[in-house]
Amino acid sequence: MTEENLSERISELKEKKNAIILAHNYQIPEVQLEADYLGDSLGLARKSSEVDADIVVFAGVDFMAETAAMLNPDKKILIPDRGAQCPMAGMLPVESVREAKRDHPNAAVVLYVNTLAEARAEADVTCTSANSVEVVNALNEDEILFGPDRNLAWHVEQNTDKEIIPIPEDGHCYVHRMFSPDDIRLLKKEHPDAEVLVHPESDPEVQKLADYICSTSQMLGRAEKSSSDEFIVGTEVGLVDRLRREFPEKSFYPVLDEGICRQMKKHDLEKVYRSLRDEKYVVEVPPDIAESAGKATERMLKLSS
């Protein structure tokens, strides 16, 4: 089936089934273009709580679809490929959170949404890369258990007076860990007038070379309002596809062409179509976990602007 035919059939099924498609910025261009809403983790969390639909097809990784399921218990949440599982989310099992809480009973638990629902059920509040500093600084506690991304924890640490305790010690995104300071310096030498935009999942030495530390949606916003015509982009290459499409008059250079999230790229247009057609694969979160983790997510939405 051609891409055009798939798009037509997806549109027909969306209308017939009162369905929408949410997609993360790291999806392949064909899926990005088919989405009703395209964004970062924070934007998708907000959108999933506002949807007026019976079915939501979530083109992202597992923890994102779980967030949508928790915020929409009356909706059917689908993920096109069950293999779209975030490795970083798997680095923080629930028992590790419970052990850290026992060791630090006075600490607030702030978990990145890039964490599975079972672990998030142990959190006081969740956060995203876009609002992590804002959420942490809004809390009364001086001691913060923060996981699972060590580099995002470092970024928060630079912007708060609170004590940040990372859990686990070395949680990370394998894509953002590919980037090195030398990669940035080489591109900066080739493009001396380019602004450097870096995601806070990158290593501290990479973050230190950035002009702006940004979530993916913040990178889009910066590209739109900046007077610069050139940007070095330190995140997964799917965002570069979107930046080039939306700002064709500007130039965007990925830190690494190999900066690809294999799990995000498991979705394609045919899988989105089959997901809608067959209403699979359904994402469900046990009610007790959904209630606790949902409260942490809702608190995040209240604390962040």
Automatic annotation (TrEMBL):
Q: What is its main location?
A: cytoplasm
Where along the chain is iminosuccinate bound?
A: 24, 41, 112-114, 129, 199-201, 216
Tell me yes or no: is Iron-sulfur among this UniProt entry's keywords: yes
- GO BP term (any one): 'de novo' NAD+ biosynthetic process from L-aspartate
Reactions the enzyme catalyzes: iminosuccinate + dihydroxyacetone phosphate = quinolinate + phosphate + 2 H2O + H(+)
Provide the top EC class.
transferase
Tell me where in or outside the cell this protein is found.
Cytoplasm
State the pathway, as annotated in the record.
Cofactor biosynthesis; NAD(+) biosynthesis; quinolinate from iminoaspartate: step 1/1
Top-rank taxon of the source lineage equals Archaea
Q: Which residues bind [4Fe-4S] cluster?
A: 86, 173, 261
Alphabetic keyword roster: 4Fe-4S, Cytoplasm, Iron, Iron-sulfur, Metal-binding, Pyridine nucleotide biosynthesis, Transferase
Instruction: Return the cofactor note field.
Output: Binds 1 [4Fe-4S] cluster per subunit.
Q: Which Pfam families match?
A: NadA (PF02445)
Give this protein's Gene Ontology molecular function annotations.
4 iron, 4 sulfur cluster binding; metal ion binding; quinolinate synthetase A activity
Which InterPro entries does this chain map to?
Answer: NadA, NadA_sf, Quinolinate_synth_type2
Quick one: a GO cellular component term? cytoplasm
EC numbers listed for it are 2.5.1.72
Ranges that cross the membrane: none
Q: Which NCBIfam families match?
A: nadA, PRK09375.1-2
- Protein family per UniProt: Belongs to the quinolinate synthase family. Type 2 subfamily.
What is known about what this protein does?
Catalyzes the condensation of iminoaspartate with dihydroxyacetone phosphate to form quinolinate.
Name of this protein = Quinolinate synthase
Q: Which species is this UniProt entry from?
A: candidate division MSBL1 archaeon SCGC-AAA259E19
Q: Gene symbol?
A: nadA
